[in-house]
Amino acid sequence: MTTTAAYIHIAPDLLGLSWDSEWEEYNKDNEPVHDEDIAALLTEHICEKGIAVKRGDVVGLHANTIEDRYRNTDTFIYDGETVTVLEYDIDQYGALPPSIQVTDTEFSPQYWQYTIAHNSIFWLTQAIRDRMRVFWNPDLRLHVGAVNIGKRPYHFVVAPPNDEELADALDGKPVEPSETAEQIMEDLRAGKYYFDLNHGDLDCIDHDVKPERLFYAIRRPSDAEDDAEE
User: How many other C-beta atoms are found inside a 10 Å radius of the C-beta of residue 38?
Assistant: First the structure.
């Protein structure tokens, strides 16, 4: 199994596009072009030229993966049939969309860490979420859990649902969790969480777990709590 996503560079002039001084895209008629239009042009170009691309590959207009672009500007992903835009509800600079999910046999949580910038967000299939187990760790004052993804065991930390609980956990103060482990597992199964390899606040805690086997479960924003697509 491939361990990292490929980055497919397609120069904008091949699509009949050009950039202005603000890095906004324009077509040959000097009309602004939106991300959805660029994704459609990329899909058409890939099909016409027979470019080798596989599900989960990242497609972009900049020459290099992360170094040559600002965040995820002009960056898209191939879903197996078409090039699609990234998810912008969780991170304004773009993230992996929920239609592309880590499975037991396809992808890993680290699959896009060198091709999608600014975050390491990923999604898990229903089958994996169904077998996630959560419990309260009184030493860390956090809910933690474990799950196998394929043959690999992973540990995860559930980000507290509010700033007060997070601050108390980090400060070593007693925490009375507002959610039970059972409630969290129910919401995990319902697709109300996304997952990230990093967490700006919780990364500082020593979890005594290999970093490559640790991730964080973070509640989705209220306006993006539709169940993850299968």
Answer: 23
